[in-house]
Design goal:
Blueprint (H helix, E strand, L loop, with lengths): L8 E2 L2 E4 L9 E13 L4 E7 L4 E5 L2 E5 L3 H13 L7 E6 L4 H6 L7 E5 L3 H10 L1 H4 L7 E4 L3 H6 L5 E7 L13 H10 E10 L7 H12 L4 E8 L7 E8 L14 H5 L6 H6 L5 H7 L2
Parallel strand pairs: 7-8, 7-10, 8-9, 10-11
Antiparallel strand pairs: 1-2, 2-3, 3-4, 4-5, 5-6, 11-13, 12-13
Length: 290
């Protein structure tokens, strides 16, 4: 059984203490507990915070808040999509809150977007408490699959231009999403010229996880890079995006730019930040050999 999120609320404050970031914690003042229960896979808590709006917590770990979710959703979606000349078919694995899907659908070239989420409870909670993200489920281009993403990909090979894995941390049901066989499955599901983007953990905390994973990916993909975005409610205020291209591709430079209208819909991503997100501090460059 995972961490019981509601037990982490004391004296009106939620405190996130994760096994993957020992010795530090993140606290948010709680205005109201909106939902608490257990899905088929994990503990799920939603509360309204005083500073960050509604907050989704899985097994005691913050997944998204209304105030800063775009910093992650936009980057993990638009980094790969703007590196592809004509992304038509997109697979999102995880991402049951709908935020990544919302950003994917801003690209007019996308004809079909499949969301493959193993935990239906996350989707239902998002529909109720995170309407600005879950609005994406209503788009006619979207197909929802409640199942294991690895199982889905076995029957869908050579099919997608972009695969985005929006996973929680590598504990519990998400653990397999950080292992080499999963990246091999994504490779087989990509079309020629396809690109993968996955939640890449925090360079301040998880180089011991990121370094071997990138080494494994280099055995599979032609190009492997690590970018990052800043987001206040994730551990150390930073989260990475691991990007892999099936064929040689300069992932650090977008090959397309957003229209003026599209750019107006963004709160974080632009072409300049695309390029700068791959510029790493020296300690990370040495560890990741980029």
């Amino acid at each position: 059984m995972g961490v019981i999120g509601i037990d982490l609320i004391k004296d009106g404050w939620f405190m996130e203490k994760g096994a993957l970031w020992p010795g530090q914690a993140m606290s948010l003042e709680v205005a109201e507990i909106l939902h608490h229960g257990r899905t088929k896979f994990q503990d799920l808590l939603v509360f309204r915070s005083k500073a960050y709006g509604n907050v989704l917590v899985l097994d005691g770990v913050i997944q998204c808040t209304e105030r800063d979710e775009y910093a992650y959703q936009e980057m993990i979606a638009h980094l790969p999509l703007f590196c592809h000349p004509n992304p038509e078919r997109v697979l999102v694995i995880g991402g049951g809150d709908g935020g990544v899907l919302r950003e994917v659908l801003k690209h007019s070239s996308v004809k079909k977007a499949v969301l493959c989420e193993i935990d239906e409870g996350v989707i239902e909670a998002s529909k109720k408490y995170f309407p600005a993200m879950s609005c994406s489920f209503q788009d006619e281009r979207v197909e929802l699959k409640i199942m294991d993403g690895a199982v889905y990909m076995k029957d869908h090979q050579d099919e997608y231009d972009i695969i985005i894995t929006d996973s929680s941390d590598p504990i519990g049901p998400a653990e397999v999403l950080f292992e080499k066989p999963f990246y091999e499955s994504m490779y087989r599901s990509l079309r020629d010229g396809g690109i993968v983007a996955t939640q890449g953990e925090c360079m301040w905390l998880h180089l011991n996880l990121i370094t071997p994973l990138m080494a494994s990916c280099r055995e599979i993909y032609s190009t492997v890079e690590y970018a990052f975005t800043s987001i206040p409610t994730y551990p150390s205020g930073q989260i990475g995006v691991l990007m892999c291209a099936k064929q040689g591709c300069n992932l650090k430079e977008p090959c397309r730019s957003p229209s003026d209208e599209m750019q107006e819909s963004f709160q974080y991503y632009n072409s300049e930040i695309h390029t700068s997100s791959f510029v790493l501090p020296e300690f990370a460059k040495r560890a990741l050999r980029v």
